[in-house]
């Protein structure tokens, strides 16, 4: 048989001529799309490389040197892997590894790094930024301000300072405001003599809307008037004037407050510019404090008390939730697996509803049901027993309420898992047990539970880790309240570690991000350690 006309004889040759039993294979010519991809490969690679370098340049220009170096290394690695044939095997592993490093490892390392600093709402900026902020503080000198207008002069502009009666007093040379990016000193000219070089009279003053467009350039101008001791600086959209600065930089790195000649030096322990008398100047700057945030959890008695209580409650809350939800879910799964039970489909649907409804909706519904004065639960208890428990005010009742709601939300998940696992248990075991005269309880504890709990164990570990960080339930139901009394940092009786960290970082006590990051890092290692211990114990039990 002759090869097709579009193929050369070499292309049509069998790939396994020595083994005709394996069939004949041919190499088809590249399609039009493949040829186009081959032609565009290197132009697109070059464009991607230029775009990557430009992004690195923007990071460096923004002052993020370390981030720029990290991005540069990442882009070099990407291009090496996807261009070089030597790293061909890594092309399939790299996306997963890169995603893990970027979305898991990097946030963890960054959070841990913040835990070694005093980063907070009072220490947001670097020392250089705080220095620039203080040195930029100024006020206008009374009696030395002048109104101004801006006029177009071809592609350039002229700035006119006006007297109190509105007449022009000083006019600037032609200014290229559209290209002004750095400070520019401008020698102003008297208005009358300045009119002579103009080829045409000054045009109408720019309206406010167009004046705002040139605001950044106007802020860079320093106007010098003949015989004036001070330069005039931009004070707003209506006037220029002389300014009096509040601070002066010294060669030793300190700042001098000109109003009272007090010198403030940077304190790298507290993160403030401080005077010799101990006066601190806001805002503070970020500094490395070492293990201070971690030792505070152990050494500070007023912090250690609520922290240990919250940690104990977090472990207890997670463990009790998993135990109760597992017991209820497994029991319901066994009951629904009973062949003689009528309306099993209806029961299964009703018991599955808590899992089908979004969790935050169920939590808000329960918040209304447990309301002390108007909730349905207290209305029923009052009618039957004559009591109205203070679910949100009493610490013990609030914790019981949290467990009830969390078990309600969690048991359907366990029930579904157990229902599937029950199908894998051989029916012969139950038949042999029936012959031996065993009852339902014996079957459950001797056959069902041991065979279900082993494959269920890893999922129970993940459920424990989930409840250890179940922030949504705490935030929506109790918000951590009722609070501990007489504590430095507001902490709630029903707070778990993650909600306690959130309150420290974003709600109370001045947003102490460094301390919150230290607690978050501790939570990570605690959950990881407990998960590893649970998995190892279960592995030994299964072996």
From TrEMBL:
It is a multi-pass membrane protein. GO terms for molecular function: ABC-type maltose transporter activity. Keywords: Cell inner membrane, Cell membrane, Membrane, Sugar transport, Transmembrane, Transmembrane helix, Transport. It is found in: Cell inner membrane; Cell membrane. GO terms for biological process: maltodextrin transmembrane transport. It comes from the Bacteria. Residues 1-25 are annotated as: Disordered. Residues 311-534 form the ABC transmembrane type-1 domain. Residues 1-20 have a biased composition (Low complexity). Its main location: membrane. InterPro entries: MalF_N (IPR035277), MalF_P2 (IPR029345), MalF_P2_sf (IPR047103), MetI-like (IPR000515), MetI-like_sf (IPR035906). The chain crosses the membrane at residues 65-83, 90-110, 307-338, 350-370, 400-422, 456-477, 513-535. Pfam families: BPD_transp_1, MalF_P2. GO terms for cellular component: maltose transport complex. Part of the ABC transporter complex MalEFGK involved in maltose/maltodextrin import. Probably responsible for the translocation of the substrate across the membrane. The complex is composed of two ATP-binding proteins (MalK), two transmembrane proteins (MalG and MalF) and a solute-binding protein (MalE). Belongs to the binding-protein-dependent transport system permease family. MalFG subfamily. PANTHER family: MALTOSE/MALTODEXTRIN TRANSPORT SYSTEM PERMEASE PROTEIN MALF, MALTOSE_MALTODEXTRIN TRANSPORT SYSTEM PERMEASE PROTEIN MALF. This is Maltose/maltodextrin transport system permease protein.
């Amino acid at each position: 048989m002759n090869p097709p006309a579009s193929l050369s004889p070499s292309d049509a040759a069998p790939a396994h001529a020595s083994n005709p039993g394996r069939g004949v294979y041919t190499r088809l010519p590249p399609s039009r799309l493949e040829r186009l991809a081959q032609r565009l490969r290197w132009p697109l690679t070059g464009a991607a490389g230029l775009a990557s370098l430009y992004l690195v340049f923007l990071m460096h220009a923004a002052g993020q040197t370390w981030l720029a170096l990290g991005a540069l290394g990442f882009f070099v690695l990407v291009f090496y892997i996807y261009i070089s044939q030597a790293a061909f095997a890594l092309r399939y592993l790299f996306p997963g590894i890169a995603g893990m490093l970027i979305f898991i490892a990097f946030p963890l390392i960054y959070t841990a790094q913040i835990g070694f600093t005093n980063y907070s709402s009072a220490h947001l900026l670097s020392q250089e930024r705080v220095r620039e902020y203080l040195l930029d503080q100024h006020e206008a000198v009374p009696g030395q301000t002048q109104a101004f207008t801006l006029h177009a002069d071809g592609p350039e502009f002229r700035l006119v300072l006006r007297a109190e009666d509105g007449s022009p007093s000083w006019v600037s040379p032609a200014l290229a405001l559209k290209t002004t990016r750095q400070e520019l000193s401008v020698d102003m000219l008297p208005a009358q003599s300045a009119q002579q070089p103009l080829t045409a009279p000054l045009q109408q003053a720019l309206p406010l809307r167009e004046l705002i467009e040139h605001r950044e350039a106007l802020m860079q101008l320093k106007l010098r008037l003949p015989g004036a001791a001070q330069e005039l600086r931009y004070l707003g959209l209506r006037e220029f004037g002389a300014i009096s600065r509040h601070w002066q930089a010294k060669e030793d790195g300190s700042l001098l407050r000109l109003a009272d000649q007090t010198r403030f030096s940077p304190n790298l322990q507290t993160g403030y510019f401080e005077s010799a008398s101990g006066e601190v100047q806001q805002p503070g700057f970020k500094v490395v404090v070492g293990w201070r945030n971690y030792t505070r959890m152990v050494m500070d008695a007023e912090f250690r008390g609520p922290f240990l209580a919250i940690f104990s409650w977090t472990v207890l809350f997670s463990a009790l939730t998993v135990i109760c939800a597992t017991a209820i879910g497994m029991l319901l799964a066994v009951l629904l697996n009973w062949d003689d039970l009528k309306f099993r489909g209806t029961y299964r649907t009703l018991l599955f509803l808590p899992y089908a409804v979004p969790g935050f909706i169920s939590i808000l519904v329960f918040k209304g049901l447990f309301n002390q004065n108007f909730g349905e639960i207290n209305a029923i208890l009052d009618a039957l027993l004559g009591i109205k428990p203070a679910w949100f005010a009493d610490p013990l009742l609030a914790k019981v309420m949290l467990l009830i709601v969390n078990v309600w939300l969690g048991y359907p998940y366990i029930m579904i898992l157990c229902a599937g696992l029950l199908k894998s248990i051989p029916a012969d075991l139950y038949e042999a047990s029936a012959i031996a005269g065993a009852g339902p309880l014996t079957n459950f504890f001797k056959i069902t539970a041991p065979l279900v709990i082993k494959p269920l164990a890893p999922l129970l570990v993940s459920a424990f880790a989930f409840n250890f960080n179940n922030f949504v339930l705490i935030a929506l139901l109790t918000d951590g309240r009722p609070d501990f009394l007489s504590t430095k940092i507001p902490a709630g009786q029903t707070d778990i570690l993650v909600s306690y960290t959130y309150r420290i970082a974003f709600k109370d006590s001045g947003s102490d991000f460094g301390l919150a990051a230290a607690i978050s890092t501790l939570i990570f290692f605690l959950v990881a350690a407990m998960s590893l211990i649970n998995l190892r114990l279960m592995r030994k039990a299964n072996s």
